[in-house]
Amino acid sequence: MFLCANYFREDVAELIQVSWLEVSGAVPVIKGKKYKVRFHVRVKADGFGWNNIQVLVMAKVGRRGNYEFKPTTLKSDNNEVIIPSQNDLEINVEPDASDNLLHFGLYEVWSGKWKGGLEILNAEVIPV
Length: 128
Fold this sequence. Notes:
The chain is mainly β. Helix content is 0%, strand content 61%. Strands 1, 3, 6, 7 and 9 form a five-stranded antiparallel beta sheet that branches. A four-stranded antiparallel beta sheet has the order 2-8-4-5, with no helix packed on it.
């Protein structure tokens, strides 16, 4: 069985102005498999507050699981970026996991700076 959750809309979600970024979701996964989690985003030309701001992609299996995360530092350059940008965030779903929901998200809640102009193009949960 192949499972790929690719959340994409023709009209993208845009952050107008926030100080706290939290985009989250959950998808069912197959126990005993490994999944890659990533977001495709773009800082618009008139975006602000993103230069050298670290955002995290986080994921865990089940509500009580422990989060794993990968950081990416954004720039305001109007280019599409895949987050995490270096190494993929891979989550192992143990065969004996008590839950088969993968909770994932994109976060920036630590800087306290006002930010805007971030387009979230899509989120992916892909089997490895």
